[in-house]
Amino acid sequence: MDVSLSCRRPWKCSKSLSTIHPNPTARSKFTMYTAAVLLLAAALATAEVHTVDVGEGGLVFEPQTLTVKTGDTVIFHLYPRHNVMTGPFSSPCTPTDGDGGFYSGEFDDTDDGEKKFVVNVTSEDAAYYYCSVQRHCQNGMVGGWNLP
């Protein structure tokens, strides 16, 4: 659409032209950008932080189970001679094959829970985890989130 105005002061004409004929593409991009920012802010506002003590009271995860959502964060507080590793429900006490699992690593000194292992939740699928130190898992040191 061509709009032509004749006026003696071009700076006033350009103002009028932008008021009469705003750029619909720019408005659409602004609206999409604003919507994306609002959705991201809403997702971050609903994200939760969960904490799990690993071995503070012996061969236990406390709490043993969690309910998490995508975007949540799980912080494992590691206590001496304990770790956390994911494993399949069908084969307890064995590491997850391939990608998708996590492992805190082994530490001699965890400073009584001050050493933290952080996991960002990227799926609402069930996750099973256990302590892989010696026979801790076989003795019941297991946990998980979103368990069926």
Spell out the helices and strands N to C: HHEEEEEEEE
What's the rounded overall pLDDT mean? 81
Low-confidence stretches: 1-7, 15-21
Distance between the termini: 60 Å
Helical percentage:
10-25%
Count of DSSP-assigned helices: 2
What is the domain tally?
2
Strand order of the largest sheet: 2-1-4-6
* CATH superfamily heading of the largest domain: Cupredoxins -  blue copper proteins
Summarize the biggest pleated sheet.
4 strands, mixed
Radius of gyration of CA atoms, rounded to a whole number: 27 Å
What class would the helix/strand composition place it in? alpha/beta
CATH-defined architecture of the largest domain: Sandwich
Overall geometry: elongated
CATH class of the largest domain: Mainly Beta
CATH topology of the largest domain: Immunoglobulin-like
How many beta-strand runs? 8
Strand content: 15-25%
Architecture overview:
The chain is an alpha/beta fold and 148 residues long. It folds into two domains: 10-46; 47-148, Immunoglobulin-like. 23% of the residues lie in helices and 22% in strands. The chain is built from two helices and eight strands, in the order ααββββββββ. The protein has helices spanning 10-20, 24-46; strands at residues 49-54, 61-62, 65-66, 73-78, 85-86, 115-120, 127-130, 142-145. The strands form two sheets. The protein has a four-stranded mixed β-sheet with strand order 2-1-4-6, with no helix packed on it. The protein is elongated, with a radius of gyration of 27 Å. The N and C termini lie far apart (60 Å). Residues 1-7 and 15-21 have low confidence and may be disordered.
